[in-house]
Amino acid sequence: VREGDTVPEYFYRDASGGRRRLSEMSGKWVLADFWSRGCAPCIQSIPELTRIAGKYSEKLEVVSISVDTEAVWKEASKEHGITWNNWNDPLGESVCLRTYGTRGIPTFVLINPEGTVCKIQEGYGESVLDNLLREYI
Q1: What is the spatial distance between Cα 50 and Cα 23, in angstroms, rounded to a whole number?
Q2: Which 8-state DSSP code applies to residue 14?
Q3: Which of 83, 103, 105, 124 places its Cα 20 to 30 Å from the Cα of 62?
């Protein structure tokens, strides 16, 4: 998947075990955040994601997708207070790397309300997400 492509129909799991997919958020902007507990930049992005989830709540859904095992994902989510859409990728990092052609995590994928991938952002630095959203939303 490249920028300009339609978001793929891949299923993730929510905390209740339900099957979720990014395309179900159609009609709103979506910021998918592929992360892991053991990734320092991923954890560093959580405060900015928290602000973004509140600031843009009318226009944007933040969806954090953990590439950890289910037990590690649930523990880390609780530990770091992730209260927005929070899913798990049952195949781990391989789906993010293969699907979006990235080299690692964190990877952020911005999807427009029509389901088109607008931007794939690898890595994290302070304010990178705010700047990204200002450019598109």
Answers
A1: 22
A2: -
A3: 103
Tens digits of residue pLDDT in 100-136 = 888 889 999 999 999 999 999 999 999 999 999 999 9
pTM of this structure: 0.94
Mean pLDDT over the full length of the chain: 93
Helices and strands, number each (H, E), in the chain: 5, 7
How far CA 36 is from CA of 57, 60, 76, 118, 119, in Å, comes to 24, 22, 8, 23, 20
Specify the length of the chain in residues: 137
Whole-Å CA distances, 112 to 9, 78, 85? 15, 29, 17
Residue 100, number of CB atoms within 10 A of its CB: 20
pLDDT, position 46:
97
Q: What is the pLDDT of residue 102?
A: 85
